[in-house]
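The freezer alarm interrupted the setup, so I double-checked each line after restarting. Inputs confirmed:
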Amino acid sequence: MAVNVVESKEWYLAGYAADGVPTTDHLTLRSVPLSLSLDSIPDAHVAVQLLFISVDPYLRTRMSGQEDGLYFPQFSLNQVITAFGVGRVMRSKDEKYSEGDIVLNAFFPVAEYCVVPSSVLIRKIDPEAGIPLPEYLSCLGVPGFAAWVGIEVLGEAKPGSNAFISAAAGGVGMVAGQLAKLKGCRVIGSTGSDAKVRLIKEEFGYDDAFNYNKEVDFDATLSKYFPNGIDIYLENVGSKMLEAVLNHVNPHARIPVCGMISQYNQIWTEREGVRNLLNIVGKEVRMEGFLVGSYLDRFADFTVEMEGYLKQGKISSKIKIYEGIQSFAESLGSLFSSSNFGKVVIEVNKPR
Amino acid sequence: MAVNVVESKEWYLAGYAADGVPTTDHLTLRSVPLSLSLDSIPDAHVAVQLLFISVDPYLRTRMSGQEDGLYFPQFSLNQVITAFGVGRVMRSKDEKYSEGDIVLNAFFPVAEYCVVPSSVLIRKIDPEAGIPLPEYLSCLGVPGFAAWVGIEVLGEAKPGSNAFISAAAGGVGMVAGQLAKLKGCRVIGSTGSDAKVRLIKEEFGYDDAFNYNKEVDFDATLSKYFPNGIDIYLENVGSKMLEAVLNHVNPHARIPVCGMISQYNQIWTEREGVRNLLNIVGKEVRMEGFLVGSYLDRFADFTVEMEGYLKQGKISSKIKIYEGIQSFAESLGSLFSSSNFGKVVIEVNKPR
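Predicted 3D structure, all chains:
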């Protein structure tokens, strides 16, 4: 018999974290009763059991309360956090969805269960496609799409381009490097540990990589790895690495700016500035920030291409799965340590 | 009877100026004999008497000797400086040019006379067109073309866009503001004196303008002048103004980077950095450096459009003319003081 009321644990924002890594002072778990009886669900809504939730660095930027400085829309205090996720439809008041459908949504509550308008669902997933569900949050999700927009749309990757990927073993970086290789680029990555250097060279096919924690002079490092200069820099870290890159860019280099993880835990006035932006004039560099939400008209093209790569084994991903909704704060914190490998996901409920 | 040998005074680079405004320690005038006899002129070359030379801020960036930090090709030591100019053909070994033709060249020696390959000449000027010759170095020259590329090509100016022009009373800025107005933008300028604020509002049609020397908090200033945010920022100054702008950009703002005059006289490691570049992610800003030399395939389109505006009186320019080749160093220095108005030009020889 169908359960009609569940206790759903969810994460809400108890306080903004102006700087530092958010802790349970800022992110708090609570339990709320949620009615799943069909007559309590509004028309054109569905009740969903969350299966997997995507944990991405951009979430941090929505918790600072520094609207002016950071320019990402802030989560509201005492409201549930939202994130990209995969869920299973439990009840439906929309004839396009049925119980058991597996669905994707960019703004699921970080919760065990929810009731959402069916209009927010991106699409159904075919469980027979042979792709593990967490992959829909990795190569086929926010990080994969960000990598695709960065490398293929804004980076204009071409055979022979020299591509540099920062945060190269992270969720975006590992996919970006593989995409750039598929486009014929020479690809170098920077990452935060020797183990990750090995990972991206051995598993993700980077031509070479370095551990930025061991480099004392990024300028010298880039001279060594880019004797012919940099044509594409997928920017994920900011500050000193960007400054070094701007001393090695080739004419008409592209710098798609996906994020700047080194900057998320600092108030902007306390960050180190980039002093050599003038170089973008002489080298005619195009530096462009992007949010994947602005490219959703390309999401279907991306999905077709990426599903093809996955089925042909041309792209793979490494996914770190944290168990249970209670692991959200810890998993988010892990993104800001050098220990994190690949894409971070929470498994909220076991898929049946 | 034709003169066969002239003494031509020319400016050469005696030493690089890593920082500060170049002085006569770095820029030195010398006199060299130049044969103008037809048999001494190589085939496909012309002998030219310089009439007007364009004095632009980018020239400074070619005198630092800091190739890595600045990324502009450096002038060679002991070689003559080159600049955009207008000259009169005195002798021709190319049937396309005749004595008396008025010609444009992007790389004339900063000299009284020269012999150059005819292939470097951009075009002949029709003296009957009714446009004063210095205007070919202003609205129709490097600064006018830079303004056009910045506002129309990269800035994608549209009716209703909020456009902000820095160095607004300078050679590029005065044209950029007028072009943005013609495209239907709301245009605000920043400049370095109250007299220039009046000039750009009264003569160049800026909707409003401010004297940055009187503003203590650029963030507050931009809040006042851009209650609806900034869609286009034509970057000509860098540093603190750019930082303030990045706190006021609208989604998908364009920042064509023409130059950063506040940065030219400092070694890059000593400049103040820009700390809030992360904002270009959240607002999806496109920041793009450009050199007009890369857009020469559009120069003819630009010329047609700009000549039309000039003839219709829709665009005007203010030109400060320094007399004589000896005024080059002083005129270049004037660009880095707040006292400079409009486009700076040297009149080398009087047009006949």
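Quick read of the result. Chain B touches chain A through 42 residues (CB under 8 Å).
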